C-alpha cells in the first residue's frame, strides 16, 4: 500500500497539534527558574540538617522532552508539565535505616519551612508540591546514592519498600530513541509521538471506568517498544497507526514488554500480575500499578484497540481524499482541542 505524503491533511493537522500541545518555551524557562530556586532552598535546609546532597537532577517528562502544555477546559483537562527533581543523598549522611525511611517526611518539612504558603504533601515516594501562581506541580524525590556514585540510586517508599533505580539511565533510555528518530529525515520524532499518545491517554482517562491514571512510564515504555519495532514513518498518521496496532497487540495478548538497553531481557515475569511491562533500568520492577487487575488491563487494551481502529480509519479516509471525515476521527482521538489547534 502506498505511503501517505507528508503533505497529507492529517499529517499537517497533527504537526500543528503536536506543536501546540508541547510546553511553550517561555513557560519552560519559568519552570526551570522556579526549579532552580526550589533546589537551592532545599539544598540549604538539608545541608544545615547535616545531609550531604550529591546531586539534584531533573527527571520525568521535563527531562525527556515529552511534557504537555496545561489545558483545563472542556472534557480534555491536562494539568500540564510536571517537574520531577531527584534529591540524591550521600549514604554516609543517613546511616540508620529508620532515618532513611523518614526521608520523605524530612524533605516535606524542609519544603514547608522554605515555602510556608505553598501546598505540599507526601506521596508514596515523593513530596508533591503545587505552586498556585505558576500552576506547576513538582515531585521532589529523595533517594540515596548507591556505592558512592551518582549513577544509581536507592528509592525508599512510604510502605517500607526499597527500589534500586537510575535517574540518568531512565533519561538515557528516552534520549537514545530521540536521537535515533532525530537522525532520520522527515518531521516525525519519537518524543513528539509520545506527546500525542500522552494527550490521547489523558483524554481517555476522562471517561475511564476502572482506570484512575495510566502512569507516564507505562506510556513511555509502550511507545518505546512500538518505536523499536517500527521506528517512525514519513507522517504522524502512519507512525501512530503502526504504534497503536503494536501497543494494542501487547495489551490484548498481555505480551511481555522488556528491553535490553542496560542488561539482558529477563526470561520470565516478576510477579503474579497478569501482564508485565518491565522497567529497563530495573527489570525486577513491573511498572503496572500494583492496584491493577484484569479489569484495568482489559480497559487499557480496549482503549488501545479502539484507537488502533480509529487510526486505520484516518488512513483510509486520507487515501480517498475524505479530509473532513479524517478530521472528525482525529477529534474523537484527541478531543475538542484538536478542532482549534489541529488546523491546516
From TrEMBL:
Q: Name one Pfam family in it.
A: SMODS
**InterPro entries for this protein:** CBASS_cN_synthase (IPR053445), NT_2-5OAS_ClassI-CCAase (IPR006116), NT_sf (IPR043519)
SUPFAM superfamilies, sorted: Nucleotidyltransferase (SSF81301)
Key words, A-Z = Antiviral defense
Q: What is this protein called?
A: CBASS oligonucleotide cyclase
